[in-house]
Each structure stands twice: as structure tokens, then as C-alpha cells.
Design goal:
201 residues, PQLC3 protein, Monooxygenase, PQ-loop_rpt, 0% strand, globular, membrane
Length: 201
């Protein structure tokens, strides 16, 4: 891939991720409800993102391969705060903040810890998508879940497969993005299915 094309892929990924959670956040704020969204799914997603970011920093990977992660994490934290507020679980926010903050520092105490965490990170991130899918299947209602946000996640996963192959070629990272791509497509399709079913009722 030509360097200019690789730069374009990086740039579009950053642009998408800069606003990736905004459609979801707008839907929640507009409805004043977190119906259709799973707190457990978001907590797992946040854990996976933090581990992945820490892994990239620890191994000194090029900044352009993970620049979007701090922005996505910040958006997840805001979205999680809104969801916890609307679901009456605001008091748990401090507890989760302490756990994540402590985990961030413990990850790099030993090399084997960050390596193990990265391997488990794919399972945790996959679990976050599966929890959201289970929530959708149980309620048979996409509620405030945003197909646009999940669709942007599909794009980001697909482009990161390309950039990983072209830059670090890290197998653990590549496997993570392939798994995320498949599950993001699945969640997006499920949300669209339930939105369509609701319109025809």
C-alpha cells in the first residue's frame, strides 16, 4: 500500500473515531433513557480499550496506529456516565473509576502481565459485543442503540486490520481486529433488524 493511501486510512479512521459515540450519546440524551444499552457491555468494552491502549504504548507502537483510542475511551466514559445516570446507578461510577485507574497501572508491572492482558483483551472485547447482542435478543428491541455508532465501529475495525498488516504486523492485534469486525457487523445487523421490525409493527 502506498504511504499516501496508508495515511488516508489512518486519517479517516481518526475522523470516524472522533465522533464514533456521538450518535449513541445523542440518542440517549434525546430520549432521556438508556433503554436497549447494556452497562455490562460498555464496562467490558472500556476494559478492552484500556488494555489495548496500554499494550500499544508499552511496546512503543507508532502513535498513528492507536491515536483514536484516548478519544474513544473519553467518549465511552461520558456515555457510561449518562447510561448510569439514566439507569439510577450513578453511585457506582467512582468504584469503577478506581478499578480502571488501578488496573491501568498494574498492567505494566511485569511484561507477562501486559502480554496476558492483551490476549485476554480480545476475549473481553468480544464478550462486550456478545453481552450487547444478548441484551438485544432478550428485549427484542434496539431501544436507543445506535446503528450508526456500530456501523462506524465496523469501519474502524476494518481499517485497523489494514493498518496493522502494513505497520506492526502484530498477530494478537490483528486477531483482535478481525474478531471485532465480525462482532461489530453482527451487532449492527441486529440493531437494524429490530429497528426495522419496530417500524413494521
Amino acid at each position: 500500500m502506498a504511504p499516501g493511501l496508508l495515511d488516508l486510512v489512518h486519517l479517516t479512521t481518526w475522523a470516524v473515531c472522533a465522533v464514533i459515540k456521538l450518535p449513541q450519546l445523542v440518542a440517549v440524551l434525546r430520549a432521556g433513557s438508556a433503554w436497549g444499552l447494556s452497562v455490562s457491555s460498555l464496562l467490558l468494552e472500556l476494559a478492552g480499550l484500556l488494555v489495548f491502549l496500554r499494550y500499544q504504548i508499552y511496546y512503543g507502537y507508532p502513535l498513528e496506529t492507536y491515536l483514536e483510542y484516548p478519544v474513544v475511551i473519553a467518549q465511552d466514559v461520558i456515555l457510561l456516565g449518562c447510561i448510569m445516570h439514566f439507569s439510577g446507578k450513578s453511585r457506582r461510577a467512582l468504584f469503577y473509576a478506581v478499578i480502571y485507574w488501578g488496573g491501568w497501572y498494574m498492567l505494566t508491572l511485569q511484561k507477562w502481565i501486559i502480554d496476558l492482558a492483551m490476549n485476554l483483551c480480545t476475549l473481553v472485547s468480544a464478550a462486550s459485543k456478545l453481552v450487547q447482542l444478548q441484551h438485544l435478543w432478550e428485549t427484542k428491541d434496539s431501544g436507543q442503540a445506535s446503528a450508526l455508532t456500530w456501523g462506524m465501529s465496523v469501519y474502524a475495525s476494518a481499517t485497523r486490520i489494514i493498518t496493522t498488516l502494513m505497520t506492526t504486523n502484530d498477530l494478537a492485534v490483528l486477531i483482535r481486529f478481525i474478531v471485532m469486525l465480525i462482532l461489530n457487523i453482527w451487532v449492527t445487523a441486529t440493531i437494524l433488524h429490530y429497528k426495522k421490525a419496530k417500524k413494521t409493527d
